[in-house]
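User: I'm putting together notes for a lab meeting next week and I want to include a structural view of one of the chains we've been expressing. I don't have a solved structure, so I'd like a prediction I can at least talk through. The sequence is below, exactly as it appears in our construct file.
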Amino acid sequence: MIIGLTGGIGSGKSEVSAILKNQFHLPIIDADTISEDLVKPGRKGLQAVSRAFGEAVLTDDGELNREVLRQRISQNDDDMRMLNSVLHPLIESEVKAQIEEYTRLGEKHMVYDCPLLFEARQEKFVDLTVVVVCDDEERTRRIVKRDRCTEEDARKMMAIQLPQEQMVSRADIVIDNNGSIDDLNRAVAFVMDKIDRL
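Assistant: Thanks for the context. Below is the predicted structure for the 198-residue chain, given as structure tokens.
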């Protein structure tokens, strides 16, 4: 079974992914890792991004200037759509390859960890969707602490994603992450028990 894992920025999706990997030993297909690898120097993804956005999004060393690109996509929906249109076909190709490899290895369950699972219509790859949710105030606090940004910037990053309510309406399973890490561990264990019974 392919489990699609998603959630808004600051929701704690990465913590859930880590629990599934470290405690339940599930293989993780990580969309962010794939995306980061695709935009390394010499890779097709970086070439596509620089063609779409120009050399302003590159550093003097020819690497992707993530901060410049992040500012652009957080301020302009068209830029966000353009970035998705150039990267998502490349990401999809790699996701398919990893699914095929884990299937060949006989894995019973695997996790597709994808922040834009619904926005990018990536749920077509999965059998079941799990959404991690958290109050907006707590999400803002976490983003500010993690990214050392302002609350305004954190809210902008949250605003460019699908609202949590819409994610929940499309989810098979919802994990509430407003409690402690122990609460989260228990919630993930409950979900895995439920999945194993399917």
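A couple of points you could mention at the meeting. Residues 77-104 form the longest helix (28 residues). The longest strand covers residues 2-7.

User: Perfect, that's what I needed.
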